[in-house]
Structures are given as structure tokens and as C-alpha cells.
Amino acid sequence: MNKNNNNFKKRGNPKVLGRVIKLVFSYYPVLFPLACLCILFSAAVSSIPSIFQQKVIAIIEERFMSGDWTAASEEIIPLIIILASLYIISLIAIVTQTQLMAYITQGFLCKLRRTLFNKMQDLPIKYFDTHRHGDIMSFYTNDIDTLRQLVSQSVPQLITSAVIVTVLFSIMIYFCGWLTLLVLLGVVAMIFVSKRIGGGSAKYFVRQQKSMGKVEGFIQEMMSGQKVIKVFCHEDETKEAFDKINDQLYNDSYKAHAFSNCLGPIIMNIGNLLYVLVALIGGVLLVANVPNFSLSGMPIGISLIVPFLNMTKQFTGNVNSLSQQINSIVMAMAGAERVFSLMDEEKEVDDGYVTLVNCEVSEDGTITETDKRTHNWAWKHPHGDGTTTYTLLKGDVRLFDVDFTYDGKKQVLTDVSVYAEPGQKVAFVGATGAGKTTITNLINRFYDIADGKVRYDGINVSKIKKADLRRSLGIVLQDTNLFTGTVLENIRYGRLDATDEECIDAARLAGADDFITRLPNGYATELTNNGSNLSQGQRQLIAIARAAVADPPVMILDEATSSIDTRTEAIVSRGMDKLMEGRTVFVIAHRLSTVMNSDVIMVLDHGKIIERGNHEKLIAERGVYYQLYTGAFELE
Q1: For 580-597, how does the pLDDT look when each residue is reduced to its tens digit (9 = 90+)?
Q2: Which neighbouring-strand residues pair with 557?
Q3: Which terminus of the chain has a smaller tally of CB atoms within 10 A, N or C?
């Protein structure tokens, strides 16, 4: 934690605040400066009544005392008219500024959320594997909300107070240098207190934002795992774990606000004390007839001391406001740090230039690119000399001597070679953690290999654009994700331009049509909360139908039937066999019954392929696969 705080201080709030302002300006290059001008004008106007007050009091002293009421009225009335006019214009500026800032703030948050979400879509899978989803959600809620307060309240108030303090200080120097020096001593005391107390609150506001992210991450994790908690009766342990991180949030928030809440009253009382001292010293200077030290050349009198007292009150009030805004800014900067940390994450690298296109193949074998959707696909390969060649997509996938590690330390795959010819069904068998899913993650480039080569129809996959590479692969994962919407919409997610008939045909192919038609509203049944109103097997059937409607040349089935009972599996297998016809298929399964008809079966152990061959060959070898098949050895 200390390391993070030091890093935060090293980069500094001003730098982060500058980045926030720059971002707002980039979104609203005209409206934001206009709002700032309105703030500046209204702040300046609120600073100058003391000048008019001094002039009015001086006129009263000079004219009224001599009984020249007419001359006094002629001099005072124009001042009142000018001041009233300035106030009316200031009111218009304030109303304009508030309306503009409301529009800018909400627009800024809308654009920032869009920027964050778009950035999130460009991040590699590794980021989501290493960050808690609830903590990521906190970026969009707590952290962005602190920026709302910053842009809508803190920044306008900061500008207002800074302008007022600057203008008042200039007027004070013009009126009386002696009293201004006294005010400066009070300001030094305020700055000292603000630095000591504000520094303490800054550290804990940073911790508060991070603790809040941990709490939201924990809650999201527990919400998704409620059934597991209930099954194993871990309610009490879960409560204890939540209490621990919730207490940490409480401690951080309490300390942050304890420092923050005491700052205002202390600054305010220093201001009150300063007001008394100014009145006292001003009276002493007046009685002692001390010559004024100022640019105005006015003698120290009632017409100078009274407006100076009002300026002192206004001055210290705005210094207090500045100190209060510092706490809001510090908290906002803690949120901004987290938001910018996501925005600054490196995007998923994609150096590919080979794309996937629909094509038509003539009788003589000529490949022609077409905008129409066909069942033929080709790799479009542009060359440096300006020419373009097309390679028909056949589904020939090969891995040569591949090594891989997730963290750069522990080796996950070692010297793995896989040869999947077009139309072959290749199965991976092995214990949990043997590297089966990792191989498929390398084929679709969720991760990139450390050493070796992966070729797709003879093309190095690093040369293929990732979006096109993944478009050629249909993947059915063990963990099924369904989205809020109808059953039909979830199936169509595999190919957004698919017709209703194509989606229904895909469901029939996967064996899902039977149970879908028995749902309350059939294909129009609404699914919520990841399809919690369906069984796990039904959810997986929809996922298979989703892959079927995508009609990909290559299929990856990662434990695709693991949550389906034996009877349902038999139904699905028939549909799967149709789905796999003419396609290269990679199958990961614990049930050997689903891989027996594979062209090639590879047995993995600790990231190495220890056996390969078809079912009959491996049975004849009486190795690990034989032991698995006969029950002499079980997968862990």
C-alpha cells in the first residue's frame, strides 16, 4: 500500500488534475472555456463590492458630514446603478455557467464511460484473467462518480475561490499594506494547517478508493457464487471475509473523513481570529494615526477599515472553501488515477494483415472475393509489391514445437506439436492443468506463444488479423455465458445477420429446439442473469446452437457436453456430428465417449504430449489412454 501511495504522490495531484481538465477540454473545446469565462466573470464581480463600499463610505464621510446631501446622492446613485448592473450580468453568467457545467459534466461522464468501455474491448484476455470483475465495475461507478463531483463542483468552486482570493488580495494591497501583511500571516497559518491535515487525508482517500474497489469485487464474486456458498454452508465464513474487507474500507474512509472534516472548522476559526485581529490592529493604526503603507495613498480611516474587514471575511471564507475543495479533489484524483490506469493499459497487440473474406471458387480453381455470404472462405494476403493472393480456407491447423508460459516463470506447454488436417477431429485428453485449453487459447491468439510456430492453412497466425482469425473459429466453452435478451437473440449472437430461420435451424442441429419450444414463450423467452431460469445443460445447448449459426470453418469444443446428462448427450452428439461435418474440430473432454471417434487423440501430461493416435491405436499401446479407458486410472 505504501508503494502505491508513494507512486501516487510521485505523479502528483496537479498532473492528474491537469489531465482531467485536458480531457474535458478535448470533449468540449468551446463550451468548457465558455463556462470557465462565466465562472471567472461572476467570481470577479463578487470580489469588487468592497471597492464600491469604500467609495460610498468615503462619500458619506465627506459629503454627508458637511450636509451636502444633493452632491452625495449624485455621486452614490451612479455607483449603485453600476454595481446593480454588474450583479445582473453576473447573475446571467452564473445561470449560464451552471447550465453549461451540468451539460458538460454529464456529457463528460457519458463520453468517459464510452471511452473506458471501448478501451476494455481492446484489452487482452490476460487483463480480465488477472483483475477481479467487481473491481473493474468500480471504475464505472465509484471512481467515475468522484470525477462527476470534481467537474461539476470542485473545479468551478476552485476557479471561483482562486479568482476571488487573487482579486481581493490585489485590492487589499491597494488599500492598506499593513493590514495586508497581517492577513498574509493568517494565510500562512491556514496553508500550514491545510498541508498537515490535507496530506493525511490524501493518503487515506487513495486507500479508500482501492478498498471500495475490493469490496465491490468481493460482492460481485459472492453474488455469482451464492449457490456454492449455500451448498457448502459457508455463509458464516463469507460474512467474516466480508467483514474484514468492509472494516478496512471503514477504517480508510473514517481516517480520510476525520482529517477532512476537521480541516474546515479549523480554517474557519483561524479566519474568525484573523477578522478580530484586523479590526483590532486597524483600530490601533487609526487611533495612533499611523501613515498608511499602500498604493492608494488613502489615510487609514473608517472608510478603509470597514471594507477591509469585509474583504478579510470574504478572503478567509474563500481560502476555507479552497481547503475544502482540496479534499474533494484528492478523492477525485484517487478515482482518476484508477480510471487512467485502465485507459493507459496496453491494447491487445495485433500486427496481422491477412484478412478473411467470402469467396467464390470457379471450376478451374480461381478464387474470387465476393461481398455475398458464401460457405467458402479465403485468406486475403496483401504483399509488399502491391499484389494480393488468396488462400482457400481449409482448416489446416498446425503447431510446431510450441513452448508457452502465462507468467514467464512456470512452463505450461513444452515442445508441443499438433497437426490437424482439414476435416479432422482432434481430441485432447489429460488431467486438469495439463494444458488442453491452453493449446486452443494459442490457436485463437488469446495468448501468444513464447517459442515455436502456429500455422493456419500454412499462414503464421501472427500475420492474421485477430478478429478475422477468431471469426474463422467457432468456440463452445465449458463456462456458458448468456446475455440478457431472448433465446433467439442469444443464438443470433453467433452471427448478428442470421435470420430467425437460420437460428432455429442451428438450434435443431444442436438438439436445443425441443426444450426451447417448451419454454413459456418459446424462442421469445427472455433470459436474465446469465440464463439462471434454465438448467446448465440447456444453457450449454444454446451455446452450441450459437456456434452452429456462426457456421465457422473450424470448431473448438472445450468440455462442450460436460454439463449435459448422458441421454441429452446422445441427442447432442448427433447434432454435433452434423455440425462437425467438413470442419476441422478440436475437442477437449473428460468423457472419453465423446472423443472415441476422433481421428487423432492426444494425451497431455504437465504440458507435454505423451501419447497420440486414434482410439484403436492407443488402446493397443496399453498406455495412459488405455488405463483411462479401462478405469485403471482416472483423470483428476
Answers
A1: 777 899 988 777 777 888
A2: 476, 587
A3: C
